[in-house]
Design goal:
With 405 residues, this protein is an alpha+beta fold. The chain has helices spanning 2-18, 138-142, 255-259, 268-276, 280-291, 296-317, 327-335, 385-396, and strands at 38-44, 47-54, 66-71, 81-85, 92-95, 98-106, 115-120, 132-135, 145-148, 159-161, 165-170, 176-182, 209-216, 221-222, 227-233, 240-245, 340-343, 348-352, 360-366, 376-378. The strands form five sheets. A five-stranded mixed sheet has the order 10-16-15-12-13, with no helix packed on it. Strands 1-2-6-5 form a four-stranded antiparallel sheet. Strands 4-3-7-8 form a four-stranded antiparallel sheet, with no helix packed on it. It is globular.
Length: 405
């Protein structure tokens, strides 16, 4: 009997040892700016209402249900529960090729700290890292308002243009609202990944308050001054940050806007020369033409790739400052979208395998703040120095693949 038990245990051990390791969930698809499913939520009594926008509505025409699952963490192997949105075809509202879907879940089924996944596709793809993933926080579960445009559609963005109509659509009785405007002058672009942050000057601990606006929820606002606004409904709860930018955002058009992201590729002397040029915008074109060794087609491709990544970073990462200025925006612009992304409750890892500068993994850790609840900070290390300078040199020698983003 003992021999049989021992043989069984040995066999079980060999089977486990030989089993293929479980594949990690890859979240790289969430950083495809053109296909990213965007969403927002609003608390309504004992329910949480979801507003989803599919950039390609054909995803909803394949007769796959909209699948929901709650997970203990981003890397959990099994969901806590699963469900699907019934009669999703009846809930679709079209906007060109894009599609809107609304539904509500009982708040009792949702707990702070859990992660909710939303996916429209075959059952075997549910929980694969595609679709949308939402960390449930106490603030999100309690927020009773959303930001909408002039026709009432949810903005699904924390950045708008100067003068763009914005409304606070609040659930329940009409309430007073405030918008406090803060200066973004002290916000700087992210430093390279090998920088010793301890040796850098400490950033200001407070932001300069420029103005305060008082209004009623539901009133249409036209915020004419660029900056960071903290919006609050009633007298409690965490404010919602709204970044007001120039009217071409997330793309860049003016000379000053085009020069600023070159901080990742140039010296301060080179940027000063661009700013001081009689025609700064022409100077930017000449910079890229010099990089391309007077090959105009190559220069255009480099400009399209670099500033296309800047615009995508703005779409993906803008919060308290423009997305290209954030730590994730830094890598996205210079190295491109990550080839694989792995998340846990305490970190996010970006993997690059074919950059031409060697394989590298960069680690980000969540560092939420009042204005950026989904902010991630790069863990900087000295060993990134050679990889970083090699990546910059590829741009300076026009060796970065100019096709795609």
């Amino acid at each position: 009997m003992l021999h049989s038990i021992r043989s069984f245990l040995v066999l079980a051990f060999l089977l486990l040892a030989g089993a293929a390791p479980a594949q990690r969930r890859d979240f790289a698809g969430l950083y495809n700016a053109e296909r990213r499913l965007r969403l927002d939520t609003r608390r309504e009594a004992d329910s949480l209402r979801f507003y989803l926008r599919f950039p390609n509505g054909s995803d909803l025409q394949q007769r796959h249900p909209l699948r929901l699952a709650a997970w203990l963490s981003y890397d959990a192997k099994r969901p806590l529960w699963q469900d699907s949105v019934r009669h999703v075809s009846r809930r679709i509202r079209w906007a060109g090729s894009a599609a809107w879907v609304e539904f509500a879940l009982p708040v009792a089924a949702l707990q702070p700290g859990q992660v909710l996944s939303l996916h429209c596709g075959p059952a075997d793809e549910a929980g694969a890292g595609e679709g949308a993933w939402l960390l449930l926080t106490a603030e999100r579960l309690g927020r009773t308002f959303i930001l909408t445009d002039s026709v009432g559609d949810p903005l699904l963005s924390r950045a708008v243009h100067r003068g763009q109509p914005v409304r606070i659509d609040s659930y329940g009785p009409e309430q007073p609202a405030t918008a406090r405007l803060y200066s973004t002058a002290n916000f700087a672009a992210a430093l390279p990944p090998m920088t010793d942050l301890a040796a850098q000057p400490a950033p200001p601990r407070t932001l300069g308050l420029l103005d305060s606006l008082f209004f009623r929820a539901g009133q249409e606002l036209h915020l004419q001054q660029a900056g960071l606004y903290a919006l609050r409904v009633g007298g409690s709860g965490r404010p919602l940050a709204l970044l007001v930018e120039e009217n071409e955002f997330p793309t860049l058009k003016t000379a000053d806007e085009l020069i600023r992201p070159l901080i990742f590729l140039t010296t301060s002397a080179e940027r000063k020369k661009l700013y001081d040029a009689p025609n700064p915008k022409q100077a930017v074109d000449n910079f890229w033409l010099d990089v391309a060794r007077d090959n105009q087609n190559l220069a255009r491709q480099l400009i399209r790739t670099y500033y296309g990544r800047v615009a995508d970073a703005n779409r993906l990462f803008s919060a308290h400052k423009a997305g290209w200025m954030t730590d994730r925006g830094l890598l996205y612009v210079v190295l491109g979208p990550p080839e694989a992304v792995y998340r846990t409750a305490t970190e996010e890892r970006w993997v690059y395998r074919s950059t031409g500068t060697g394989n590298a993994t960069y680690t980000f850790r969540p560092k939420p703040s009042t204005f950026a609840p989904e902010h991630y900070e790069l863990v900087r290390r000295p060993e990134y120095e050679l990889l970083w300078y090699a990546a910059v040199e590829q741009w300076r020698k026009a060796l970065t693949a100019p096709t795609g983003r």
